[in-house]
Amino acid sequence: TLEKARLELNENPDTLHQDIQEVRDMVITRPDIGFLRTDDAFILRFLRARKFHHFEAFRLLAQYFEYRQQNLDMFKSFKATDPGIKQALKDGFPGGLANLDHYGRKILVLFAANWDQSRYTLVDILRAILLSLEAMIEDPELQVNGFVLIIDWSNFTFKQASKLTPSMLRLAIEGLQIFLHGNNLNSLHQLIHPEILPSEFGGMLPPYDMGTWARTLLDHEYDDDSEYNVDSYSMPVKEVEKELSPKSMK
Q1: Which of 52, 68, 88, 178 is the most exposed place for a label (fewest CB within 10 A)?
Q2: Are 143 and 104 within 8 A, CB to CB?
Q3: Which range has the worst mean pLDDT, 30-44, 99-113, 233-247?
Q4: Which helix (H) or strand (E) holds 96?
Q5: pLDDT digits (tens, 9 = 90+) for 61-79
Q6: What is the pTM of this model?
Q7: Which of 147, 49, 142, 146 is nearest to 107 (CA)?
Q8: Which long-range contacts (CB under 8 A, 24 or more apart) does 242-246 make?
Q9: Could you give the C-alpha distances from 157 to 29, 113, 164, in angstroms and in order?
């Protein structure tokens, strides 16, 4: 991983402190943003994400906090035990495969048809995904190697699709590099080897357990089936869409 960081991300242990400090020094140029964290380990994430280009790393850091600042309601009760987030996680929104791929990347999966609209909203799913990424990015190896998200749209109903507004889809498309594989999984297997994929994706492993990642985040609270209160997180999707912008999502 250290060699990969050096070759692919331009990471140099000898200049690491200087690289971090140069990004930190740019914080004063954006007094409109509350930078809640500027410690070395946190800034290093953004340098790795932008291959140690200082200004690009700072711009990503600023966008991260600007997004949180503009969408405060998204991050209220931002924890795995929040009722809406918990239900989304237990239904595999998102889930994670046990094994890393041959590039050392973490594989996240979503089975879109599992969305139970009576128990949690699209906003809850988005919050669960963001929370999961926050947890995973703590791992320095994943900061270097990255993530892949596989979405299975089979059996997705028209009723469920009606909740995917154009603005939300636009944000997803602009924020992700997307490959469409259709029903032919050969192109998927060229990107991710079948040895680490469950049978649902034509892989060689047993069927996917969507609770694997949820149990990791929730630990002993995974089996706490207290009644879900639909009013516990009631921010309307339309209000979130008004606040989100493609620029901030990137």
Answers
A1: 178
A2: no
A3: 233-247
A4: strand 95-96
A5: 999 999 889 888 888 999 9
A6: 0.79
A7: 147
A8: 243/70, 243/71, 244/67, 244/70, 244/71, 244/167, 244/171, 245/70, 246/170, 246/171, 246/174, 246/175
A9: 47, 7, 11
